[in-house]
Amino acid sequence: MSCSGRPLIVGSETPESPFPLFVQGTVVKGFGRGSKQLGIPTANLPSDIVEHALNDIHIGVYYGWAQVDDGEVLPMVMSLGWNPFFKNEKRSGEVHIIHKFGEDFYGQNLRIAILAYVRAEKDYESLEALVDDINMDISVAVESLKREAYVRVKDAPFFVTKAK
């Protein structure tokens, strides 16, 4: 259990239906809040992916693996929903890849494997409370993805490997 009272590991020992969900799309510009306001950059999924491919899963926060083009497969957390703190009028899918990138990658292909649900979407009293919860989501993702059944998904044929 974390100091926030939330468990550091969520999800069963192996991904359960409907997971893993494999989705890919071109990274699009979002609202510009991830890096600037939150200090937590996100790769935004195209609206057709959010509206169609992700239509059958609940609004909330998820974790899994992500890959930009043919790069390394890295841990990620994804917010799927309306972002009530910012009063979005359109549902969005925002992926935070747990890695420091040197530059933006708009227009590049993003592949994600969604493996488990972390928590419901909620509103916040302050920006600081939102950032604290996102940082907790990141910790949960990192710890939860250490389990063998979740690590194995990194090697799924869905992810592209560089030719040697």
Written account of the structure:
This protein is an alpha+beta fold and 164 residues long. Helix content is 21%, strand content 26%. The protein contains four helices and six strands; from the N terminus they run E-H-E-H-E-E-E-E-H-H. It has a six-stranded antiparallel beta sheet with strand order 1-6-3-4-5-2, sandwiched between helices. Strand 3 (60-68) and strand 4 (74-81) form a beta hairpin. The longest helix is centred in the C-terminal third of the chain and has 18 residues, at 127-144. The protein is globular. It starts with 20 loop residues before the first strand and ends in a 13-residue tail after the last helix. The relative contact order is 0.25.
Shape: globular
Secondary-structure element string? EHEHEEEEHH
Please, what is the average pLDDT? Answer: 88
Spatial separation of the terminal alpha carbons = 43 Å
Q: How many helical stretches?
A: 4
Strand order of the largest sheet: 1-6-3-4-5-2
Radius of gyration over alpha carbons?
15 Å
Strand content: 25-35%
Q: Please state the structural category.
A: alpha+beta
Describe the sheet with the most strands: 6 strands, antiparallel
